[in-house]
Amino acid sequence: MALQQTTVIDKIEIVENGTLQVRQRTDIFDDANPSAILASNYQRNSLAPASDLAGQEPKVVAIANATWTPEVIASYQAEQAKNALPISLV
Questions:
Q1: Count of domains in the chain?
Q2: Which of 26, 34, 59, 63 is the most buried (most CB within 10 A)?
Q3: What is the spatial distance between Cα 32 and Cα 12, in angstroms, rounded to a whole number?
Q4: What would the pLDDT profile of 33-89 be if each residue is shown by its tens digit?
Q5: Confidence at residue 43, expressed as pLDDT on a 0 to 100 scale
Q6: 20 lies in a domain?
Q7: Residues in CB range of 29: below 8 A, 6 or more apart
Q8: Looking at the whole model, is its pTM more than 0.85?
Q9: Which is nearest to 60 in space by CA: 72, 70, 51, 73?
Q10: End-to-end alpha carbon distance in the chain
Q11: Quick check: is 90 in a domain?
């Protein structure tokens, strides 16, 4: 029995403010029966509008490019600026 693993992006969600949430799933299986997954592991990350997309999967880049219009980016940046904590110089 030799164990193998595959890793796929199995979920991409778009949050109301334009942020993309990307879930990556890693499956472990026996190479004698690849349809019987022995274990799965999930990892999530998020990408804010106008984030650097270098190294991202092509389908993540495609969804980001379709979603992150100039209006979405401007709205996201304005909301971030509005919610920023003031820096006090003591």
A1: 1
A2: 63
A3: 31
A4: 878 899 999 999 999 999 999 999 999 999 999 999 999 999 999 999 988 877 776
A5: 97
A6: yes
A7: 3, 4, 5, 6, 35, 36, 37, 38
A8: no
A9: 51
A10: 64
A11: no
Q: Which amino acid is present at 78?
A: A
**Please, are residues 57 and 47 in contact by the beta-carbon 8 Å criterion?**
no
Q: How many CB atoms lie within 10 A of CB 22?
A: 20
Q: How far apart are CA 49 and CA 19, in angstroms?
A: 6
Establish if 89 belongs to a structural domain. no
Question: CA of 35: how far to CAs of 3, 8, 84, in Å?
Answer: 12, 15, 48
CB atoms within 10 A of CB 24: 15
- Token pair 């992006």: residue: 9
- CA 72 from chain centre, in angstroms, equals 17
Q: What are phi and psi of 57, to 5 degrees?
A: -60, 145
Q: Which domain holds residue 73?
A: 3-83
